[in-house]
# Entry
Amino acid sequence: METDDRDDDDLYVEITADGNWQPNGSAVPPQAVGTWQVAPEIHDLMMLRRIGGRTSRRDRSLVLAGVIAGRGKLADILMLIHMAAMDGALHLTTERDGYEIDKVLFFRRGVYLAGHSSLLEDRLGEVLVKEGFISVDQRNQCMAQVAEGARLGTVLVAEKLMSTPQVYEGLRKQGEQIFCSTLGFENGHFRLVAPLDMTQVPAMLRLNVQNLVLEGMRRLDEDERAAQQAEPSAELALHRVEPVEDTELPPDSEQKIINVYNDALGKLFKTLPTIEGVPLMAELRDFVAGSVPFRDMFEGVGVRPDGTLDGDALHGNVSKLGEHRLRILQEALNELLFYVMFAAEEVVSHRLEAQLQHDVARALSRLPRHDKR
# Structure
């Protein structure tokens, strides 16, 4: 079996200012009918406790709930479930880049059975491609049958693209990836619901929680070391960022380039104790007003109180330039950023200057490129 990518039919409740509760979403399930008491709120997680009514073992109840407060903090909860031999579905919710991420880990007697994830990267097909079991074309070849209700693993075996042991190994990799990735959650909520509904379990992997927690923490350490190595060294000399050529960029890249440098200028000025009271603001305005090499670029461009530039005025000036206008824009803005960092050398640390140059170079390297197909 493998993870089912279909969404659950969730029940939502709208609470109005006058105290009315209105179900919203799927039909109200029979097990939800009854009288409930609102338990103490945990951050933005509200819990209800049934008052009277049915109390059979078939009713699911909330065993654990709380807030995720930092990377690796879930390790204690996972080990508690393991050591106490708990059953249930551990629902985990976090937010990344403005998007909500949901994952569910299924446990029986403290043993991890399988996981479900809302992320595309955690789906079985993506994992099999990443691990080298199949190619992208082979995965896509099977997706038509999957869309009709067949399971990907079954299709792969039927098409002789993978053996049954290989499918199991792929499922194990998928289960490990979903489990270990939850240790990287920096915020959000968790709740353990029991007893376990076996019809919702996508696979029966039976993996050791203690080993997975250790592996997940090891991966976190590796990620942190890689991030530290990617940071610019304070000992490195500053250098001007190499601009991206116009031929590589779509014509609508102006705003993205302006945003890259305005973001760097904004971060730079945030480090100053005040804005208007620091001579650096006057230095910036003087440079914009009197820059000889890029006079046409900066003509009439104002400086906002936060140190960023008037994007509309810059757009107007760029539109008047001819060939290599995007390259000239990058050169002008980089020269401006370099000048401001030079003028602020008594106020801003060398490490921050290096970090800003690093951020600009990385952002420019990630600009969308022309589709050359």
